[in-house]
């Protein structure tokens, strides 16, 4: 469409009223269509600007996606100084009384007076100790089972091999434990693990063998990890989270259930209720579930719920920065003030806030929610736009409604001091699995993903219970693996 020239306008004018009316109607329709397009593009530009403005401080994006810029942490930081705290035992090297080896350094020179000191009696000595690792070499133990023939009847008798010695040539339990430690705890990919075995232990080992060791370890851990799962069903609170993972190029979902002493991982093709039902913890759970606002969690009515306020603080920061809505700043201040009061009360060994404090914070919270509604009124779509369906609410309105509908869940940490303010516990457990994905890329098969989840569940739980990981992994191949028990 191009602009009319004066000559073309005069030609239409002289053509009579009908030509003028027709031209005006066409121009009016074009203006309406262009206005609708402009409104649509303005909305789309706003959405793209909002996406660009998101970072780890105001959304759920990871810190690794941030541009080189520091963001203020809204939650109060610890007042502790860097380094070891008072009473911490520390890790400084200390001289041991019974070293493994002693090397003497003799006095060989003469005294300045000319006396030879070589045969002089030693009065005392000074000590310095060097802690080092000797050259590491794989030891080969040959098992020889005797074969004897009875001289009376001629029957042959063979001594049995130990149960764990099942093949003519095999790797021992310590080597397999180290392989699982490197793959499941240090998160090394198979190629780098194989390189480490050859460089450090002078023991060439293939990636296929390492995968077989991982699979064998996973099979031995079926019962211990099932016990972890059963303990989580009767624990409270339990933190839940999920994140996308790649397996053989397809998108799967890694689910976790965590407490301070237990961790359980599971991988599934789905994210929502179907996966949660198949995993089997939430359908039977009756404690307090801490999670984000994914709607699938709310379908489990038999348990109590607590929402992650770290998510809320980030979303409120985004609304404050992008939309300049004052209610968001007030809600941030309100949530942090409640958090501060509950921490103080807990330090004072109180079991809950006073009823006066609770009522005050409830009224403050509701007044801020009302301000949020007023700042985000629902409006009809502009003329020329399709009016079918519900009008789009936007991030701010959706957040206000969540604060209103799920008020008790947002403030669960205020009513029950056992409920955490955020879901950081589960997010920290998820972060290690994401780190594995970042280092190694996709899992080569769904079975390998399941094996990793089982092994990582065991290792994370052992770590939380302050056990030595390599020793706990060593029990996997002993026939009686360590079973983590808490409570």
UniProtKB/TrEMBL annotation:
Coiled-coil zones: 31-58
Region Disordered: start-end pairs: 74-94
Residues in DUF6444 domain copies: 26-92
Record domain Transposase IS66 zinc-finger binding: where: 109-154
Membrane spanning residue stretches: none
Coiled coil listed as a keyword: yes
Stored PANTHER family: BLL1576 PROTEIN
Official protein name in the record: Transposase
Protein's organism: Candidatus Jettenia caeni
């Amino acid at each position: 469409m191009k602009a009319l020239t004066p000559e073309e306008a005069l030609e239409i004018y002289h053509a009579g009223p009908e030509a003028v009316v027709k031209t005006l109607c066409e121009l009016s329709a074009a203006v309406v269509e262009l206005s609708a397009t402009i409104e649509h593009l303005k909305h789309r530009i706003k959405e793209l600007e909002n996406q660009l403005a998101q970072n780890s401080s105001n959304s759920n994006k990871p810190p690794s996606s941030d541009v080189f810029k520091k963001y203020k942490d809204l939650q109060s930081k610890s007042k502790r100084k860097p380094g070891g705290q008072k009473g911490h035992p520390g890790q400084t090297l200390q001289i041991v009384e019974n070293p493994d080896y002693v090397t003497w350094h003799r006095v060989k020179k003469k005294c300045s007076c000319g006396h030879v000191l070589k045969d002089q009696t030693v009065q005392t000595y000074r000590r310095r100790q060097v802690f080092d690792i000797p050259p590491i070499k794989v030891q080969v133990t040959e098992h020889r089972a005797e074969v004897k023939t009875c001289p009376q009847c001629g029957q042959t008798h063979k001594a049995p091999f130990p149960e764990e010695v099942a093949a003519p040539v095999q790797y021992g339990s310590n080597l397999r434990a180290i392989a699982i430690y490197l793959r499941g705890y240090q998160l090394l990919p198979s190629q780098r693990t194989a390189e480490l075995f050859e460089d450090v232990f002078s023991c060439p080992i293939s990636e296929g063998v390492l995968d077989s060791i991982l699979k064998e370890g996973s099979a031995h851990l079926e019962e211990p990890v099932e016990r972890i799962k059963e303990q989580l069903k009767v624990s409270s609170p339990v933190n839940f989270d999920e994140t996308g993972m790649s397996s053989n190029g397809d998108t799967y979902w890694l689910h976790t259930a965590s407490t301070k002493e237990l961790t359980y991982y599971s991988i599934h093709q789905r994210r929502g209720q179907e996966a949660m039902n198949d995993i089997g913890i939430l359908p039977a759970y009756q404690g307090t579930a801490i999670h984000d606002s994914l709607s699938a969690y709310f379908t489990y009515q038999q348990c109590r719920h607590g929402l992650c306020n770290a998510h809320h603080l980030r979303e409120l920061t985004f609304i404050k920065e992008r939309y300049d809505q004052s209610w968001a700043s007030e809600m941030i201040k309100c949530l942090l003030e409640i958090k501060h009061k509950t921490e103080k009360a807990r330090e004072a060994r109180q079991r809950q806030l006073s009823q006066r404090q609770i009522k005050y914070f409830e009224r403050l919270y509701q007044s801020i929610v009302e301000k949020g509604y007023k700042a985000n009124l629902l409006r009809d779509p502009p003329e020329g736009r399709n009016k079918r369906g519900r009008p789009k609410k936007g991030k701010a309105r959706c957040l206000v409604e969540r604060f209103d509908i799920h008020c008790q869940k947002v403030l669960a940490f205020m009513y029950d001091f056992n409920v955490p303010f955020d879901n950081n516990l589960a997010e920290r457990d998820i972060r290690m699995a994401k780190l594995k994905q970042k280092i190694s890329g996709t899992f080569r098969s769904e079975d390998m993903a399941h094996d990793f989840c089982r092994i990582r569940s065991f290792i994370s739980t052992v770590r939380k219970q302050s056990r030595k990981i390599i020793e706990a992994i060593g029990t996997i191949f002993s026939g009686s693996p360590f079973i983590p028990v808490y409570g």
